[in-house]
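Why predict the complex rather than its parts? Because the way molecules touch one another can change local conformation, and only a joint prediction can capture that. The input here totals 580 residues.
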Amino acid sequence: MLSNRSIKVSNKKMTFWERIYLPAIIGGMFVTFKHIFKKKATIKYPEQKRPVSDVYRGKHILKRDENGAERCTACGLCAVACPAEAISMIASERKMGEENLYREEKYASVYEINMLRCIFCGLCEEACPKEAIFLTTELVPPFLERQDFIYGKDRLVEQVDKRVDVSKRKLKHTV
Amino acid sequence: MDNLQKNITENKAVDNFDNKLSTLNLGPTHPATHGIFQNVLKMDGERIHSSEQTLGYIHRAFEKIAERRPYNQIRPLTDRLNYCSSPINNIGWDMTVEKLIGIEIPKRVDYLRVIIMELARIADHLICNSVIAVDTGALTGFTYVFQERERIYEIFEEICGARLTTNIGRIGGFERDFNETANKKLKLFLKEFPKRFKDFETLLCRNRIFMDRIINVGPISAERALNYGFTGPNLRAAGIDYDVRAMNPYSSYQDFEFKIPVGENGDTFDRFMVRQEEIKQSLSIINQAMDMMPEGPYHADVPEFYLPPKTDVYTKMEALIYHFKIIMGETKVPEGEVYFSVEGANGELGYYLISDGGRSPYRLHFRRPCFIYYQAFSEMIKGALLSDAIVTMSSMNVIAGELDA
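Output of the joint prediction:
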């Protein structure tokens, strides 16, 4: 023996009690009968949803700051960090009078995530140095066309009147 | 009526069928094989005369992809090897990189890792054992233990944010500490699980119908198993108490008391019983780790590899530089060659890594236990019935994702 702490676990010799097999069947029946009165483990899915954790990694969101300007500055760090190469963007320069729209002088005029490629690993939100991209607890719904899975800014950027609270996710790196 | 009788006798199957072997394709997508495996069986009536396996149906070239990914982006790839226990793969990969760069890990991180890895082992063994029962026709136990597996996945979700493809942990520790809810769920699991597991045991372990069905099905001798390179529960079932956790302790496994269950002749019943006992041992390891949990940080102090907190990134120059360097994979990794192995849920999961000092590995090889088990499958099912082949495969716990990588 290699480790001096092995135990033999399989006993293939049946006792007389086990050989007549009816006691085991009655025991099994008793277990299954007991379970009739237990709480149901299943939920009725589309109507009833399982509570997910605060840090669940679902659909992405591009955050706005407290004044409603987009936080993303198109640095491309999320695209570099993405192991699935799902993120692409085109950067543009902010014009005069757009200060209320974009927080930084450079912004992403096109920002696309291909949800068919995305593996929801959460490395993009960790990479973002501007706290612009976050994953949410929502799921990406199914579509019929592949084209529909390419999420542009219209579906990624947070709506001004429907802010999403991500404060619980942010705690991750504070010691 | 006479006419009909005559017709039936005339069209009876030919008698000289005995001498002919018929070919049966079990797979590639067969409902009974749990994954994409192709087996071409030569059948002599009901018995398997010989068989030939094909693999590579879901080969995704992870080892090749890894040659173009920075070290922290390879963890999501390891999720998809043995997807029933991805935290073990993730943590194993992190520890391989830690061995290469040679960093000291705090005791608390070791203990947290042990808890996560043992939970994953329980989940994997639960799936394997309950699926053996399903393949023999007993569906009820499966529905009971899957409720407990659900609890384990909820604990993972609380810590890393996902259930199956966890991507848990980082090089140097964890991405976040166990929160209140995770601890509460863990305690609830430790309290509730033994009861539910007892029910599962009552249904199957000493039930003659189940025992008669799986005793002496798909046996392999200890010598043959060693020659093939078996590890994990399948080798222990053959009677050899080899366990990486005991032989070559990693992540402070030397601090814990646990027994290594062994079987007799490596048949399906032995494999089943070894896994049953391992679940109990894992549970005791988790309990010990919870009791002895030391104080300390949840990650090592390695600014070159562990991302700084976001508040520091905005205020401190050094943290900002490290943040960009880590994400872009530009931190200096030493040249070298390391092999590191962990006791995965179904055997020794090894990582062989060669680094030339660049941002990604020069070569990475996963030593996947399933790949090795599958080589012996042909020998183990020779002369057995077709239905025995199904049970043998599910009891070896061959996972398609790990087989093909």
